[in-house]
Amino acid sequence: MHTQRLDWWQHEHVFGQDQVKAGEGRTLLVVLLTSAMMLVEIAAGLAFGSMALLADGLHMASHASALGISLFAYVYARRLAGHPRYSFGTGKVNALAGFASAVLLVIFAAVMAWESIARLVHPIPIALDQALVVAVAGLLVNGASAWILAGPGHHDHDDHGHHHHRHDHNLRAAYLHVLADALTSVLAIVALLAAKFFAATWLDPVMGVVGAALVTRWSLGLLRDTSRVLLDAQLSGGTTDRLRQALEAQDGARVADLHLWSIGPGIHAAAIVVVSDEPRSPDHYRRLIPPDLHVVHATVEVQRCPHHLVGNDEVPMRDRLPG
Residues near 47 by Cβ (< 8 Å), separated by ≥ 6? Predict the structure, then answer.
């Protein structure tokens, strides 16, 4: 075999990760919007001596940092997509950034709950008018940011009641950060109005606890989904069963071993062992993989099934397979 002919069986492992994702531009816009609002609130807090404005500005700084992680992940994954150190490209950088952001969200929720409980036990005076202005401004900024990140036609609803991007965990994490901020603003407005008109000052810290519980729930869902990607968890049974059925649909072939996992947003890799009495080439079995499963890298091992005899009866192939 001539060495130069090896390129027939070789291919790159970029899988489109070098392309600018739609979420990158949206995340950059939200980072700029959040950072601008952060600087305005910190400057106003220092100029007017308002602790409410200063505190909310510092709070937005923490979210600007988290959104910065999401933006950095997009740029890093795109620029190093073809680097040979990454066996399947840089798709998992997306999940890693989402996981890191989810951890920050859990920390944010814990701090929110701790501070709310402390204020419930030891109430402090609230500058209601200033706090309402801050809460409304924060809601407008975060509402606009959530709308930008949601984008047109790329989201669905889950059982948590919010919509998110189906495969882009990094964008989902950024969306959850601004959604958590917007939720905090809504709950704060409700509590502050109740305190202003009904003297129900206790509702402010209670709403903080409620918000922390919701943010924690969203964060745990993101942690679960991103950790499955990072740990190469097998895809859901329905997806794996579809692949198995497609491979076993012809020639009496049986799948002896099958691994199907995510290597990036919406793309998968597979390792397959096929056993058959009349085996075909690995490329034949690759062509049987349904295109909508988005398997961009498949390693197929093909084995001829030996004819073991027990007395005069041939053992069926399904009984010869381990397990």
Answer: none
